[in-house]
Design a protein that fits this description.
Length: about 270
């Protein structure tokens, strides 16, 4: 793993990726932030040594380096998922690369379904805590202690100071930003009515198929981390309709301008 990390990092440095301060992972249908970035360098995932390749049609596959609100940022345009057949170590490998390049803060976005029926599709949820239902851990491999503390503390995985800033920015800009617990499942199938009921019982406010592995590894690397979900559908088990991926993408696009406002103003304040 250390050899792979060094090879990938050396390649990106040779392409001009120089000491980024903030890493950003863009979720499903959330690519317009790049319109606000002064791009300095970019690298396709399939050109980066040891990198996985994005296989989901609406996920791009590029690592982008540039300036955003006066800060050097590195952005994952497209992420990896367990449901694509990747291991949790593959899914989180880019986080280790971004940390090795120099980031101190990681911001994550995702598309999620609202379990809490007080939350509506097209709104945003700041993740305050999470439930890992992916069946394993990205830290469960031989030699992990060479990269950080094996028994990583997860009592407060999301940075309280950053979350507080997000809430202030939302208030100042009239953005309806909910706060809640995100449950991460394997997918790619959507949940049954009984599964939605279970998720509600165990305390989830939203459900998705990503983010938690990256958050665990970010904590393993002592990065400051925060994450925002775009709520793309409402998961009401008593009135459940077949999923419409087109509508999910449309809802992500509808909420994206508010997400961009949050991320840009937060980065400016760091």
């Amino acid at each position: 793993m250390i050899k792979f990390i060094n090879e990938s990092t050396d390649y990106l440095k040779s392409k001009g990726f120089d000491n980024p301060e903030v890493g950003i992972i863009l979720g499903t249908g959330l690519g317009q932030l790049l319109d606000h970035v002064e791009i300095i360098a970019e690298a396709s995932y399939n050109h980066i040594p040891n990198f996985p390749t994005a296989t989901v049609e609406f996920h791009k596959g590029k690592l982008i380096y540039g300036n955003l609100e006066g800060k050097k940022v590195v952005i994952m345009q497209g992420r990896f998922h367990v449901y694509e057949g990747y291991s949790l170590q593959d899914v989180t490998f880019p986080v280790r690369i971004m940390e090795k390049l120099g980031i101190k803060t990681l911001l994550v976005s995702n598309a999620a379904g609202a379990i809490n029926l007080n939350f509506k599709k097209g709104e945003l949820m700041l993740i305050d805590d999470h439930i890992n239902l992916q069946g394993s851990s990205p830290l469960a491999f031989k030699g992990v202690s060479e990269l950080g503390e094996r028994f990583t503390d997860m009592s407060a995985p999301y940075d309280a100071e950053i979350n507080s800033k997000f809430e202030s920015i939302a208030q100042d800009n009239s953005i309806n930003l909910h706060k809640g617990v995100y449950a991460s499942v394997v997918g790619p199938q959507l949940e049954t009515r009984a599964e939605y009921r279970m998720l509600k019982i165990i305390g989830a406010d939203a459900v998705g198929m990503s983010t938690v592995p990256e958050i665990i590894v970010a904590n393993h690397l002592n990065l400051k981390v925060a994450a925002v979900s775009v709520l793309t559908d409402e998961c009401d088990p008593d009135n459940l309709k077949p999923v419409d991926i087109g509508e999910i993408m449309a809802m992500a696009a509808k909420a994206e301008p508010e997400l961009i406002t949050l991320f840009k103003k937060l980065i400016k304040s760091l």
